[in-house]
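Predict the 3D structure for this chain.
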Amino acid sequence: MEKKPKRRTRERILETALGLFNDFGEPNVTTTVIADEMEISPGNLYYHFHSKDEIVNALFSEYEKEIEHLLTAPGSRPATAEDIWFFLHLVFELIWKYRFFYRDINDLLTRNRLVETHFQRILAHKIQVGTAICQGLVAAGTLRANAAEISALATNMTVIATFWLSYEHARNPRGTPDIGRGAYQVISLAAPFLQGEPRRLLENLSAAYLKKT
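Done. Predicted structure below.
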């Protein structure tokens, strides 16, 4: 049986840092803590990353590539209700993977220029995708909304998707949130405007989630 190649130290540093940042919050984790967790010397870590900000920037670059790739997916063809539900699940799974960016965003924005400028672009892209999805549903005759309503709906969806994890963390700091619940909260914003198949899907989802609460 062929042995898997060992991961490079740089990759292990990023993986360890991501886990620690997610579990304890980025402001509470130092490079010394990361090195201790990996059982390597601080000098070994410093060889690959000269500061914690370099680690944060490397993780953000990975996150940005993944989220931008995901956000381009809905534009390939008109989305069905199931497509949108699946897409939202993938978005929330990615947010959960890099959740420290969302939980610690206010702190990061005040001191990290890369996060400050690029997170704005990601938010704008989310709104753009939300707008395109809503316009597609209008064209398909399953959503009734004017341009102003679509603009507000896309913005509100982005707000919920961005800050839902912070809400869940405040509500239950030691629990693991239900990713599907986040997707449901986003799609439920469109309830007053939906009809046909998407409306029936939302009603079924509502019934399922009401049983959980």
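Confidence is low (pLDDT under 50) at residues 1-5.
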